[in-house]
Amino acid sequence: MSEFKSKLPHIGTSVFTVMSKMAAQYNAINLSQGFPNFPVAPELVENYEKVIKGDYHQYMPMPGAPRLLVEISQKIATHYGRIVNPEEEVLVTAGATQAIYTAIQAVIHRGDEAIVLDPSYDCYAPSVELAGGKPIHVNMQADFSVDWNKVEDAISAKTKLLIVNNPHNPGGTVFSEEDIQAIEQIMERHPHIFLLSDEVYEFIHFEEKHISMNTRKTILDRTFIVSSFGKTFHVTGWKIGYLVAPKYLMDEVKKIHQYIVFSVNSTSQMTLSNYLPQADLSQLGEFYQKKRDFFRGLMKNSRFELLDCQGTYFQVARYSEISNLGDVDFATEMTQKHGVAVIPVSGFNKDQHDDHLIRFCFAKDEETIIKATEKLCKI
Prior knowledge:
- One of its GO terms (cellular component) is cytoplasm.
- By secondary structure, this protein is of the alpha/beta class.
- It has 13 helices and 13 strands.
- Helix 7 links the parallel strand 5 and strand 6.
- The longest helix is centred in the N-terminal third of the chain and has 15 residues, at 66-80.
- It is globular and about 55 Å long.
- The relative contact order is 0.17.
């Protein structure tokens, strides 16, 4: 038998899979993996029912359903004032993860470096490595803010890509205008690098408003922007998102996309084509802010220290008053002993540094939040 050599020898099962499996095994309330447990909009279901009965069951065009591409471009114009060419600058993808992976494959060559801000979503670094590149991890501050001088110090002649996530998972932070300007200045001083902006939680922001890279004209010619219908419309199982980039970059992305998935689920695309014009995305932040406030209000009598949460549907908490255990062991104990599954934040860090933080997902119905917080307040 020939020798087999792994391309990702250091990668095991993700912490999300481990904790969700443990939650099921111990019948714990699952506040770990980021998916809603409440119904999607009735109008979206009605549209899907009509589409599924229609003649939309064959391959869609490789870049996406033409109507959906137009609706996406209209959404971008409405919310960000940017005019994009739907045929040349937008690509429908099999979820945001595929958009991220494909963009990285398009720009990273063997020996190139990509800067990743930790804690980070777990698909960034492996995608860089699979392209033959090297991820350069830069730790964020303890409050999930970014020292941009530290980021710039990590840039070298080999750096090809800067990856940012805003609003930030797991931190729940939102970049300020000063943060955005710092990114623009870095891009200006280093014209050889590209920007990948992961904005899957773009409409889930609260007191601090999300500033999309779609609004920054000076760097759009070197920027990939990733969005997620799954996050926006609570349909994570549909695995559908999209990528926006200038034509010369998108041309390279499409070359790779066609050999990964070729095209994305036809019925989901047609449903979203019909639903997007009637969807009021401006209300999404308020919807999740109520859930955030409900969760935080019920946690007031707990011994957890809740950090600030300005976006996403995740709440990070410090548990130092409760236990000296490392966050992985504490999350395991939470699941097995106390019946609530959470995510240890160290799993988002390349160096696994442990600040005794865990992440809750509050994208749940009221009954689930009440039952979970009752357990959490007894710890």
